[in-house]
Amino acid sequence: MSHILVTGGAGFIGSNFVHYAARETDHHITVLDSLTYAGNRASLDGVPEDRLTFVHGDITDAELVETLVGEADAVVHYAAESHNDNSLHSPRPFLDTNIIGTYTLIEAARRHGKRFHHISTDEVYGDLELDDLERFTEETPYNPSSPYSSTKAGSDLLVRAWVRSFGLKATISNCSNNYGPFQHVEKFIPRQITNVIRGIRPKLYGAGENVRDWIHADDHSSAVLTILEKGRIGETYLIGADGERNNKDVVELILQEMGQDRNAYDHVTDRAGHDLRYAIDSTKLRTELGWSPQFADFESGLAATIRWYQENEAWWAPSKDETEAFYASKGQ
Ligand code: NAD
Ligand code: TDX
């Protein structure tokens, strides 16, 4: 058994990882999370108490980070400001958490000689044309578009530099768009599901032709555990499940699954600088480390996610009105 420090473990993907790791491994897990608007302690309910230590704190707090990294065998770093729309409105917290927070963690990890896994996104590669035959690979040049993705790109480059210059024992993964339970209602899929539950028409940015490559959060978790166990130090692995869909199709699927007219949605103001298409080629992870996704069928994964939001209104309702007021102020 080992002891993993999970930053951002009260957020969407981090909490799914903690549940998954508690089920699939015998690791002890310490979560470090500052519980921003996106963090929710309740997302960790049900994780056996003797397997979890929750620390309410900030990844930019060097003294706290020094202690917690020293006590762990490995660090899995999820904590981030994660929403593109927020980064267009108020970029500063993205610099503090994504850049300075990552710097604070890797400094502690190198001082203590600890294994470090950095969680990142396919958005660091910019976007593809709809008809591009090539997908993103580990060799694709960085070309981020938004304040969010540029700070994630910056954090990836810090980790790479710390590997080369200081021998940090790190790996990096860049994953595509996740869906599943515990995702904040600001994000596309939960926003539309909870809109339908509330009797609000779903909101599609622009024409809705933008393509995202969807992966279930549990498949992201299994990939991260695989990289933690078998990944080569200094390597980057792309994580994806061949789940490309355009936004229009996803909204229509949600409406259909929820028993509504497939066309009962609104087109709203497009996102500034909106990336057109993301698509991941995960051949390296599959062939080198033998990983494969379990949720091959997006429709049934989406249907299960819809049921989760229907059954867990108490979890998301406190954030819904404020989130919709923010979007309404921008004509979205
Ligand atoms: P999220 O916004 O749902 O959760 C982020 C968590 O980090 C929250 O619990 C928040 O309280 C915590 N946090 C934020 N700032 C902090 C700080 N300074 N100190 C401590 N904790 C802090 O994000 P998510 O969607 O779960 O994304 C998690 C990670 O996965 C991020 O690094 C993101 O870039 C990456 N990622 C996300 C996706 C996706 O589809 N959502 C895809 C690929 C990669
Ligand atoms: O109401 C909406 N209507 C809409 O059409 C919202 C909130 C979004 N959209 C569109 C924008 C995108 O094309 O849906 C798509 C998905 O939007 P988001 O859920 O905001 O995700 P995205 O911007 O693609 O980024 C996500 O995936 C990569 C995560 O938020 C990032 O943290 C991750 O790095």
Automatic annotation (TrEMBL):
It catalyses: dTDP-alpha-D-glucose = dTDP-4-dehydro-6-deoxy-alpha-D-glucose + H2O. It is an enzyme of class 4 (lyase). Keywords: Lyase, NAD. Its EC number is 4.2.1.46. Gene3D superfamilies: NAD(P)-binding Rossmann-like Domain, UDP-galactose 4-epimerase, domain 1. Its cofactor is NAD(+). It comes from the Bacteria. InterPro entries: dTDP_Gluc_deHydtase, NAD(P)-bd_dom, NAD(P)-bd_dom_sf. GO terms for molecular function: dTDP-glucose 4,6-dehydratase activity. Residues 5-302 form the NAD(P)-binding domain. Belongs to the NAD(P)-dependent epimerase/dehydratase family. dTDP-glucose dehydratase subfamily. This is dTDP-glucose 4,6-dehydratase.
